[in-house]
Design goal:
Structural class: alpha/beta
Strand order of the largest sheet: 3-4-5-6-7-8-9-10-11-12
Shape: elongated
Radius of gyration: 21 Å
Bound molecules: iron/sulfur cluster
Number of strands: 12
Helix content: 25-40%
Number of helices: 13
């Protein structure tokens, strides 16, 4: 099988190409066609001589995932993409214009074994790790379709999957993304995989880190995020305290608000205490209801959301609210695939 050049970190790519193409600047040109233009055929590399393109296509591929469905843009302009992978797996990505900047949300796995109970991807269960070409492909395809310059883009790994359980491929993907997007514009979101957080913290060039907390105490967090049994909340908070955040770059604490479960002023005060000594801001995310998820899980009303946010602010926490970005196109992770996927046996039993 021909290797996909997008699966190689840029230094390995240069080394691989260096032994094949001549002169050396050709390797740099090829790298630019890939990471600056996001091309998916060697023929698109029009500045590369035909015989070199033929040689490359005999030995390698630069295929990217194929879009099989895109939603009509929502009122706020956001749009969801369903991609098909070579082995038939399907993954989602989201395009989210946000004023002057635009975010593209990527999936890192074709499913998720972490099993957060408020998440449709978790409901459908585990899926394999995505390769770097499959992650970069989501970004390059959407960037090309919307013709957005990279300097206008943020990238967030908040789609399907737990990126820190696919860290090796995520790091290769980050190295490719850094060719056009600064590390401070990229965020990796985790459910709290402590060894992955520590490994990410040791990278020379680090993305921003977001952590999905969702409850201010261990008991409730374990109810909705079973991963808490393996990586307890207090140990997770300690790993965040030792994560090296750079000046001007805060951690993001994500908090999915569930009506009458974790949205009271007392919960906000407990959350403020939990994150109080971190360089962090809280992103409050009102729950996206979905037929696959437990019936008791409801989105809080606006008054409850406002009360929660006000209490955080009064307790010295910086907070943003993700108000229904793409809600009408089912933008929470896994919801589009969930509409088209038959329930698995495991999920029916849950
Ligand atoms: S929220 Fe993230 S980590 Fe949790 S099940 Fe969903 S995809 Fe996995």
């Amino acid at each position: 099988m021909r290797a996909n050049l997008y699966d190689l970190a840029p230094p390995v790519l240069r080394e691989t190409l260096g032994g094949i193409v001549d002169p050396p600047f050709r390797a740099k040109q090829i790298e630019e066609w890939m990471h600056l233009h996001g091309v998916d055929t060697f023929d698109a590399m029009t500045s590369i001589p035909k015989e070199v393109r033929t040689l490359l296509s005999e030995r390698f591929t630069i295929a990217l995932p194929e879009v099989i469905e895109r939603t009509t843009p929502a009122a706020d302009g956001s749009q969801k993409y369903l991609f098909s992978l070579a082995d038939g797996n399907r993954i989602e990505s989201v395009y989210m214009p946000m004023g002057e900047r635009t975010s593209i949300c990527l999936s890192s796995q074709a499913g998720c074994a972490v099993g957060c109970t408020f998440c449709v991807t978790g409901f459908f269960g585990a899926g394999r790790n995505l390769t770097a070409s499959e992650m970069l492909g989501q970004f390059y395809v959407i960037r090309r379709e919307h013709q957005i310059p990279s300097e206008m883009l943020n990238v967030v790994f908040m789609g399907m999957g737990e990126p820190l359980l696919n860290l090796e491929n995520v790091i290769t993907t980050l190295d490719g993304l850094y060719k056009s997007v600064a590390p401070k514009r990229i965020t990796v979101s985790t459910s709290g995989i402590i060894p992955g957080i520590d490994e990410l913290g040791q990278l020379e060039r680090r993305p921003n880190l977001a952590i999905s907390i969702n409850a201010p105490d261990r008991k409730r967090r374990e109810e909705i995020m079973p991963i808490t049994a393996k990586y307890p909340l207090q140990q997770l908070m300690e790993s965040l305290r030792r994560f090296p955040t750079e000046k001007g770059r805060d951690l993001t604490i994500e908090y999915v608000l569930l009506a009458a479960y974790n949205d009271s002023p007392a919960d906000a005060r407990a959350l403020a205490q939990l994150v109080g000594d971190l360089d962090a801001k809280v992103n409050a995310i009102p729950f996206n209801e979905d037929a696959n998820l437990p019936e008791w899980m409801k989105r809080p009303g606006d008054a409850a959301i406002d009360r929660f946010v006000d209490t955080l602010v009064r307790n010295g926490v910086r907070v943003t609210v993700r108000r229904s970005k793409g809600r009408d196109i089912a933008a929470a992770c896994g919801q589009l695939r969930g509409k088209t996927e038959p329930r698995s046996r495991a999920s029916r039993e849950r």
